[in-house]
Amino acid sequence: MSVLHEITVVKPARTFEDLYREHGAYVRGLALRLTGHSSDADDLLQETFIRAWRHLDGFAGGSMRSWLRRILVNRFLTRVQAQRPQVSFEEDAPVMRDVRDDPAERIEHASLDDRVQLALDGLPEEFRTALVLREIEDLTYDQIASLLSVPIGTVRSRLARARALMRVRLGGAG
User: Fold this and answer.
1) How far apart are CA 33 and CA 36, in angstroms?
2) Is the pTM of this model over 0.85?
């Protein structure tokens, strides 16, 4: 005769504060690069950590940073899809705003040259996302394709267009 013991499922010993303290700056920085706006980045940061905490028991192990990146990018793409008016990429690029007018955003953008951040902020989301994931996050084309759920050819195309737009916006600089 065996005795059954009640098993209680408990979240790992890690607290929400520990998770945020360890990964918050990274997630905030990536959110800012993707959105280009401090308030949007804050919203995305909050959504990412809430979703991560709610689904922490589903984390299969591996890199917590990669898992958080996937959640962040998925939340970002969901927001873009919901807010996107049907606009062709052939239309004129959005006007770049100058982060120097907002001290808080200037601090947030400090790790990239102001000119580069302004040019990055002006890219269409698809191009900016691919470029940030490749050049800042250093993901491979295959990883980007998987993360964005697009063919690798689409990743190559978006990166080529993003780089071309960046060259134009930076006055031909590399």
Assistant:
1) 5
2) no
